[in-house]
Amino acid sequence: MKMEHVIKGHTAQRFKENYIGTVYVVLSAVLFSIGGLFIKMVPWNPMAINGARCLLAFLVYFTYLKVTKHTIVFNKTVLFAAVCNFLTGYTFVVATKLTSAANAIVLQFTQPIFVILFLWLIFHNRPSRSTILTCAVAFAGMMCFFLDKLTPDGMIGNLIAVFSGICYAFVFIQKKMPGADMDSAMMFSCLLGAIIGCPSVMKETDFSGHVLLYIAILGIFQFGAALVFLAKGLQTVQPFTAAVSSMIEPILNPTLVAIFYGETIGPVSLLGACLVIGASTYYSIKEAVNPPKQGNG
Questions:
Q1: What is the overall mean pLDDT for the chain?
Q2: To pair with 283 at 20 to 30 A between CA atoms, which of 3, 197, 229, 241?
Q3: Cα(227)–Cα(225) distance, rounded to whole angstroms?
Q4: Is the dihedral of CA 241, 246, 251, 252 positive or negative?
Q5: Spatial distance between the Cα atoms of 65 and 72, rounded to a whole number of angstroms
Q6: CA distance 214 to 193
Q7: Is 272 within 8 Å of 161 (Cβ atoms)?
């Protein structure tokens, strides 16, 4: 009887941890998703927005690492990941300003394509046929965005969003490199963004209350708290659950922008979004449930 109580108690504790972890992951996805709306509503240049956002996020994340007593690591791998994550965040802000929020977030979510490609080229992890097919579907979806009616700025924004996805892929790739520490890399990427971007804030002229409020929301909640929630969630939640929960972001992001900002996308881009999100979801779930063996992809 005592053994049964121990097993039941352990199962209940594990269920509770998974539940709380899932809540954290979902909260992070929801907070990340408000980025498109508030970036659209701040009348600053992208470098200034990202700089102010990163400064506040750095303070949040640094505090989180100190409270959790996480040892901060700094080496070549951490620096590489920090630079890639900085570029991911900055180019996402630029893309959101130049093209629709839907295009920016969905094209950034093409990162699994580039993860597969770089693992193949750099680490010689040859992808399976199903993985190649998944990439083809996602690539077809990506092309849909460029077939829709776009202004020149919109076209440039789409290209920058794809570059953001490439940078994001390298953030994941660095986990296979010696000396990797994701928490330290996230913190240093925020610090780098603040150092590079904050001088541009001084050139802005609109510091009205609502603009400062939007910046505070972006820095403290959309970036800082979202990163903390994601880190805490991934400590206990299953990769499968995290992969599915993260797909809330590319769906909720453009939905909020459409409701509160009035921005919509064309039918061809909508088809592309379905293909990219579907392919990314399939790949994420496939990798979480059945991780590839070295050299097999």
A1: 87
A2: 229
A3: 5
A4: positive
A5: 8
A6: 18
A7: no
Residue with tokens 């505090």: 63
Q: In the structure encoding, which two tokens stand for residue 296, read together?
A: 């097999």
Residue listed under structure tokens 């100190």: 66
Percent of all residues in the chain with a pLDDT value above 70, rounded to a whole number: 87
User: What digits encode the pLDDT tens for the residues 62-80?
Assistant: 999 999 999 999 999 999 9
The residue assigned the tokens 């269920």 is 15
DSSP the chain: -HHHHHHHHHHHHHHHHHHHHHHHHHHHHHHHHTHHHHHHH--S-HHHHHHHHHHHHHHHHHHHHHHTTPPP--SHHHHHHHHHHHHHHHHHHHHHHHS-HHHHHHHHTTHHHHHHHHHHHHH--PPPHHHHHHHHHHHHHHHHHHHS---HHHHHHHHHHHHHHHHHHHHHHGGGSTT--HHHHHHHHHHHHHHHHHHHHTT-----HHHHHHHHIIIIIIIIIHHHHHHHHHTTS-HHHHHHHHTHHHHHHHHHHHHHH-----HHHHHHHHHHHHHHHHHHHHHHHSPPPTTT-
Q: Which two tokens stand for residue 77?
A: 């791998």
Give dist(CA 82, CA 78) in Å, integer. 6
For residues 169 and 111, is the Cβ–Cβ distance under 8 A?
yes
57 contacts 190 by C-beta, under 8 angstroms:
yes
The 10 Å CB-count burial string (b at 16+, else e) for 87-97 is bbbbbbbbbbb
- Whole-angstrom Cα distance, residue 42 to residue 294? 45
Tokens 């992890």: give the residue.
125
How far apart are the C-alpha atoms of 62 and 46, rounded to whole Å?
Answer: 23
Residue 254 pLDDT: 93
